[in-house]
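seq as requested:
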Amino acid sequence: MRDPTTMAEGRLELAGFAAILADEARGLSRRWFRTPVAIDTKPDDSPVTVADREVETALRRRIAERFPDHGIFGEEHGRDRTESEIVWVIDPIDGTRSFISGWPVYGTLLAVLERGVPAVGVIDMPVLGERWTGRAGAPTLYTDGGGQEQSCRTRDCRRLADATVYTTSPDAFDEAGLRVFETVSRQARTRRFGGDCYIYGLVASGHIDLVIEAGLQPYDYLAMQPVIEGAGGVITDWEGKPLTMESDGRVVAAATADLHAETIAAIARATA
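struct tokens:
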């Protein structure tokens, strides 16, 4: 069994390097933001730009230089040594549709997995200048647009009827999933749309209470786990199971355990 102190020190080092990577990604993506970039369509019909590819290439190079034995799984360039004990999971531009339309809520996501379990997660918002950093066993840290850092906490919302719920887009759901989302979200006090990775940061900082999404990939959700959990929230799949590389892309992030439990039960009833 690994020494807990050594593990904590290792995660602190990884989180520090993740911050360096996020700084680099921020500068790169902003060079292309609101400029006329070519847009390609991937096999899944999602858009991709030179910014997505170049940011991931730069991050991969830096990780390989610093940690040559670590694995990497990125949205644009796939898997490399993902059987390694430590694997970096990268979404260079989460919210490419936002990015190409000039909407400043796109982000960069970085997760570090230890034996398949997210140990470090970073949500960075390049244009807004905000960042959330989660580390297993430590409080989530929020950095504002002025560079001031402090710990953050989810809101104490325990009932779905009192919750503000977000999802990025109803277009992300299939027909059955949209019926479930409609049924569950209509029970909340308020529901809103849009935000990509930003909405998970807003849960961690106590501004909204619940996120329900589907159609996500591992690089879309694995960074969220240390951020949400370190702020006091709960994040799982729609069945209440922990998120892994093999999860089906349906995600619930809730401010409290009570709200999470009620939401999972409501999803189960809507699915039955």
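The radius of gyration is 18 Å.
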